[in-house]
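Homework help thread (please don't just give me the answer)

Our assignment gives two proteins as sequence + structure token strings and asks us to describe the second one. The first is just a warm-up. Here they are:
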Amino acid sequence: MLNQNLSQKLLQKLSPQQIQLMKLLQVPTAQLEQRIKEEIESNPALDDGMENTEDGTYDQTPENTNEGDEMPTEGEEIKLADDNGGEVDDSLDFSDYYDDDEVAAYKLKDSNYPDPDEERTIPIAVESSFHEHLTDQLGLLDLDEREHKIATQIIGSIDEDGYLRRETEAIVDDLAFAQNVFANEDELEHVLKLIHTFDPPGIGARDLQECLLIQLQRHEHHHDPHIQNAIRIIRDHFEQFTKKHYEKLEKSLNISGEELKHSIDAILKLNPKPGSGYNSSSRSNQYVTPDFFITNTNGELQLTLNARNAPELRISQNFKEMLQSYDKSKKKTREQKEAVLFIKQKIDSAKWFIDAIQQRQQTLMKTMRALMEHQYDFFLTGDETSLKPMILKDIAEKTGLDISTVSRVANSKYVQTEFGTFSLKYFFSESLQTDSGEEVSTREVKSILSDMIGKESKRRPLSDQKLMEVLNEKGYNIARRTVAKYREQLNIPVARLRKQL
């Protein structure tokens, strides 16, 4: 049975402006400039108001109209026709569209502008790619056309680490479909052996074992007894090697501990990822543009915002002049009325974006200032053990912002200090209670744990149980499974895998 009824619901919805602000909060400074350029390209009413003068300084003077120009009448009502010929009441207050936008407070500080002489782009050396390096070596081989196509297909299948992780059968199929070459696996293996002679050694290996073995066999002292033992270890006892069962290796190879140590040292000097040295994209990703700067001036911390990628934005002067021209027209055609409605929509959109940019800066500064005050001791000393427990809720309560807003600010943002550049997420950590009842940051415990492992005997590394006991003696109430969790978060292997000869 169908029933109809009326009901009221209270829904909370974000306006388009709020959604725009939330998206801008997530954008790091390094990408903000591109985001602003995209907005300027899509909205002709938005203009980059920051101009360089001849002497290299920044001109922040408002865009003025000519002295003889008359401003339109404020509050004039314009009637716009809709598609059906009726009139649409759209009141335009011209003062809202002619007044210059206020300059954001952070723009008035000289310290927030980059040095005009400073290079704005990061110089990256021009170099050949990894696969180009392999292709160049391919030209040195005496191959027929068929072998050359097979070698080209194999090189194209090698990943950035230098490994051939694609199955031989799949490469045979690729050759048939892409190159119209019908080869068999034996032919591929023959060509692959030739590629194994390329530099750097280890290129084209199917797995780590083969990669290390190729390097050892091409070692300049491959006839040395220690290198020969290393080859036997990788070729015949790879599993024992990876699990660091050194006693078993001594028995299997019938060698002394000193001889084993020399062979293991030779293996550890090999490159497990021979192609990584040519991966330029991974190196370019290491550059970080800080969003904030914290400086120590005579014991007092000062916070500034990196605004180099946030140019001054204003309403386009051309759009203002269009409104002036329309206002002076005595007879307004339908096309003119539609044009002024378009102009109004674009100007409103530009004003919303400018306001969102300014709110973004204010929110970033408000959040970072609260974070700096909470971790004041760390920013003064750089001592990890002085970090206090801090979660998103703590900063949200200090700033009056929503937890989700604080999370957006902390995500992919960086602060530069005299002790290095840190991700904002680095400063958030849970708390741990000591024997005295004091709450300390888990970051402090991890720092102590890392120091303990760094100072341990590599011949007899500390087990998780022993690490727990030492931490308990220091007053930190922590269980063994928690020690294991923190150790894994620090990317530190178990004691057996940390053992060295």
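The one we have to describe:
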Amino acid sequence: MIARIFHWIFIVFLILVGLLLTLPGGGLIYLGGSPYYLLAGIAVLACALFTIRRSPKAVYIYGALLGVTVLWAIFESGLDFMALLPRLAFWMGIGLWFLMPWFLGSETKDTHTQHASRKLWIGGPIVASVLVLFLGAIQGYDQNSTGTVRSADTSLGTDWAHYGNSAGGSRFAAIDQINTDTVGNLKEVWRYRTGVEEDFKATPLSIDERLYLCAAANVLISLDAETGEEVWRYDPEITPPDRHQYAITCRGVSYHAAPADYEGDCPTRIVSATVDASLIAVNADTGELCSDFGEQGRVDLRVGLGEHLRKEYYVTSPPTVAGDNLVVGGLVLDSQDLGLPSGVVRAFNALTGELAWAWDLGNPGNRGLPAEGETYTLGTPNVWSIMSYDPELDLVYAPTGNANPDYFGGLRRDFTCLAVQRHHSGRPFIVKVPA
């Protein structure tokens, strides 16, 4: 009785696996993808049918499928173990069930030789799978470098003035008191809690015996590096654009020192790009807003993006300081929607907050604001993460994500999407204009 229950559970399992492979597999072929999944799904459904009939053909079909799968996995992945494993392990597990005595015993009564033949038909591809995985595991992998060899930059001193210490993001600290001989003697000398309930994700800056950091929702804080005492705190009182963790994240702040001829009230300033899509600048000594930056210390990053929901565009990474410019990207909502805000990268003067230039991937000829009534190109790749700057070459390096929609790219650049108005659901109403 128990064997019969397991027999039917296995049949139902095969049917579900077959359907899960066949239906999406057909869609994949329609999109120009591999036919393997559709064919594998059909083979599994055939196995289920012959298992219901208690026919030994189920074993032969599955053995053939497993053998083809080994060849397909090698064709797609070579001998890359981590790529081979998910392609083979699942099928090997099902194959072991076909070898179990209670499964072979459920078929029509056959001779010992016929049973042995069927075991070989399944066992052979399983052994081949194990051998291929073993070969993949012992291959290892190549550790490729960029081919550039540079000595450590010992000019950085003990400050940590950028997210990655240097403008280029070397993350190298030129200190010698902490080494392999002394690291075991390190002891905690102070501990500080931000008092903000959400996760702390920032990399602090260390400049002239001060630490500068941000808590969730862009609460800016300065600490005495020696004692851990709070020097100042500025809370912009931001309402996050959404409820999930990314919509409240602050990954760090930026520091900018004005030229010697500067006569304003913020010779040194801490700048944060915020989750309500603003740039804010405060005095590094006092934490007060810099009145000469933007509109009383703030710059609106939504200018030029057109109408959109607040959760569709915000910033979690610190601006990149490139000379006297602050370069910012933005986080565009991951979704399957069309007509989401632009991923434009912009630079603002660090002293005045005025737009210095813009890089709009869909309209590279325009380096400023869009023409009246227009927006930066919708749905272009965005730069939500950390950028770096090479002062010698005067180049900014920006890691981009996908254009929208994020997961299926078939519609990304086939047409231009214009957000015309909003209907009752709050989502954009899209007009598609052939490119």
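TA reply:
I won't write it for you, but here's a hint about the kind of observation we're looking for: The longest helix spans residues 2-30.
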